[in-house]
Amino acid sequence: MRWIYWVGWLLFRSAFRSLFGLRIRGAEHLLTEGPVLVVSNHESFLDPPLIGTLYADEMHFLARKSLFKGPAKWVYRQWNSVPVDQEKPDMSSLKTIIRLLKQGQRVLVFPEGARTQDGSLGEAQPGVGLIAVKAGVPIQPIRIRGAREALPRGEARLKFARIEVHIGEPIVLTKEDLREAKGKAGYKQVADRLMAAIADL
Predict the structure, then answer these.
(1) Are 181 and 133 in contact (CB under 8 A)?
(2) Do 165 and 25 form a contact (C-beta atoms < 8 A)?
(3) What is the value of pTM for the model shown?
(4) Distance of CA 147 to CAs 50, 69, 150, Å?
(5) Interacting residues of 104 by C-beta distance below 8 A, sequence separation 6+
(6) What Rg value do the Cα atoms of the chain yield, rounded?
(7) Where does 3-199 sit in CATH, by number?
(8) What is the DSSP letter of 169?
(9) What DSSP letter does each residue of 9-33 carry, written as one string?
(10) Nearest CA to 107 among 77, 82, 127?
(11) Which of 57, 172, 187, 191 is packed most tightly, with the most Cβ within 10 A?
């Protein structure tokens, strides 16, 4: 683990437990070895480091391309962030994620694509279904509660709110699932299945 990632991991881990009283439900379901596509609802900017601290080793994240400027670019790279252009999405970031998963890495993706406005779950984008099908690795559904209250969208000041993370049973797509997932409609069906698993937590 690179030192900058490790320092961030320690700071965030301590903060989530001491300031936000982090509670983890379903820890027995957490996949800690091998490639894993982690899918979660998206409540706050706190979500990526929050999920990252669940694991004792590194994982990869998606981050807005606009954040990769100046010194922050180096920090985001050290934190294993993959730049994505939300205004003009293309296949390059998806291909990067799929390649990382096939190399045995762990990657976090938010199926909704953006943080929630009001706390409700949004609609899954087909891109996460494409990643799941093309990578063919186990999928770890996770639901976050309380992060929006701690740092709502559009706010810059942290608030003290209890955060809970619910970890669901892993999902493994069968050969039949992979055969049936053809084109955008098929990828959307897989994405909806993953979002339903998150909603059930």
Answers:
(1) yes
(2) yes
(3) 0.91
(4) 9, 26, 5
(5) 34, 35
(6) 16
(7) 3.40.1130.10
(8) P
(9) HHHHHHHHHHTS--EEE-GGG---S
(10) 82
(11) 191
Closest to 37 measured CA to CA, from 136, 115, 117 = 136
pLDDT digits (tens, 9 = 90+) for 23-82: 999 999 999 999 999 999 999 999 999 999 999 889 998 877 777 777 777 777 888 888
Q: How many Cβ atoms are within 10 Å of 104's Cβ, its own excluded?
A: 11
Reading the block at residue 136, the tokens are 């063919």
- Nearest to 46, CA basis, from 108, 111, 92: 108
- Report the distance separating Cα 50 and Cα 91, nearest Å: 27
Q: Where are the domains of the chain?
A: 3-199
pLDDT band at 188 (very low <50, low <70, confident <90, very high): very high
Q: How many angstroms separate the CA atoms of 200 and 193, rounded?
A: 11
Given a contact cutoff of 8 angstroms between Cβ atoms, the answer to whether 169 and 124 are in contact is: no
Q: Characterize 163-179 residue by residue with b for buried, 16 or more Cβ atoms within 10 angstroms of its Cβ, and e for exposed.
A: bbbbbbebbebeeebee
Sequence letter at residue 158:
L
HSE of 4, CA atoms in CB hemisphere, 13 A: 9
CA dihedral of residues 60, 108, 110, 141 (deg, nearest 10):
180
Q: Please report where in the chains the tokens 């997932």 appear, as a residue.
A: 181
Q: What does the alpha-carbon distance between residue 123 and residue 194 come to, in Å, rounded to a whole number? A: 11
